Amino acid sequence: MKGTLKARQKELDRLYPRWEKKTIWEHFLDTVKRFPDQEFIAAQGRESYTYRQAKEESIKIAKGLLAEGVQPGEHIAVQMENSPEQIFTALAAAAVRAVKIPVNTALSAVELKFILEQSEADHLITDCQMKDSVPYERLKGIIFLPEPEGKADVPVTGWKAFLEAGTGAVLEETQKEPHGDEASDIIYTSGSTKAPKGVVLTHDMLMRSAFASCRNRGFELGRRIYVPLPMFHVYGYVEGLLAAILVGGTVLLRRGKFLAGEALDFMEETRANDILSVPAQMMALVNELRERPRTLSHLHAVYCSAAMCPSWIWPAIRETLGVSDVITGYGMTEVCGASMQTAPDDPDEILQTRVGKLLPGGCSGFPQFDGHQLAYRVVDRKTQQDCRPGEIGELWCKGAVVTKGYFKRDQANRRVFTEDGWFKTGDCGCFDENGYLIFAGRVDDMYKINGENVSPQFLEEVLSQCDCIHTAAVTGVPDPKHGSVGAAFIQLYEDTRENREKAEAYAKAHLAKFQVPKYFIYMKQEDWPRTASGKIQKFHLKEMARAAAENGAGNR
């Protein structure tokens, strides 16, 4: 039995009475000792792996890296779909103290070229087809799984040959000195803005972040976590893989496109206790379960985050999935994932209006941050002074899980870090009297109409209350008369003339006159520009809105 939230948190405190700075590999080895025969990876259509077996597979890859001449601190780009090999490779990189560059598998040739060059990657490990238009000359070698495809100007090694080459290498399992403060990953921002930057994160930062989430959510030992999110992004990586390692949990992997019915089948087969999701996935699951109800007897926890959820989704999750622990969160790659979460026993009213509060760190927290791992300020961008309570401003943060900077981006670092070390997140919001964050969107998303500030996040929340609207996103458009006007991108449950009129009438009835969008642009599910983690790419919407404004489309 999972037990109560307090009992589970108490068990975690017993397991981790004090925090020790360690590498990801060292944390993994600790878990192997504690739970050697516990299932670690269950992948669809594949044999499962225990922690002991995963250690053996990871050591094979680590030895292969050593045979390739990989040294501590070298950069290894890893472009792989969610799979056992992807996890083993991540652990192997940590074992040899290489810096892993997780690469999105859907990148274009231009994007891949940019990341390989900007990250100064020395090797590439991939299960994707090589792109002929990408120059690979800078790399020392490419390791291809399963066997090489395409041509490159550097040595290309198949997986089997790579593993065989490492049989004679020696991996030191214990380190004489602590290396938890070394960089373990450079994770590139997901692309909801135009310029991806490499966020440098250390072993200790990432594991601390995972532990705070485990503790807030009350992870039971052996939790089985379905991760339909790509683990080359921080959400699935930290909340899925690293969190599972801390509790001897099982990572459940299913490759291919996310299809609600098949995902539910997989969750039943693998006895999933928990699912990490983005709103688009959760809405698909809820709709599927409303049409074809079923019971997931092992599931008791849901984490839905990374984008705004319509308010109806939270009671619908409890109703259709039959779970008790439902949370959302707020964070970013630059703070190792979620820095705030709601509590598993928070009511739907909190989930509908807040994105969480600072995570208590337990043994991983710091006295100077009141037991948390970091601190936040709400700052007026003009005066650079703290805002009054309840006043919306830019969120600044500082702490143990905040990146020290972007890789080789000195100008960007000077722009986002203050002289005394505060990181300017570019997000807007304020905290309520109980410490919960009311999120108001990105600084760049805010716009003014005749001098009045407008928060797209607020408009999206209001519009999502309309029962004919499935998804809403709002952006500002330059306007010569008013400075800016709003453009609302709307996906309806059923796209009819009547529902369009209903949606626009709802906006006029529930928003102040100046807040009502001037343009309404109607979308199909496949029209939304999204990142691999499910976030709507606002910069693309802004381009679409400008084009619509120039053509007079949707003018109201």
Automatic annotation (TrEMBL):
**Molecular function GO terms recorded:** medium-chain fatty acid-CoA ligase activity
Residues annotated as domain AMP-binding enzyme C-terminal: 459-535
Is Ligase there in the keyword field?
yes
AMP-dependent synthetase/ligase domain ranges (all copies) = 30-407
The answer, when asked if Ligase is one of the entry's keywords, is yes
One Pfam match: AMP-binding
Source domain of life: Bacteria
UniProt keywords (A-Z) are: Ligase, Membrane, Transmembrane, Transmembrane helix
Residues passing through the membrane, by range: 234-253
What is a biological process (GO) this protein takes part in?
Answer: fatty acid metabolic process
Query: Which family would the database say this protein is a member of?
Result: Belongs to the ATP-dependent AMP-binding enzyme family.
Name the record gives this protein = Acyl--CoA ligase
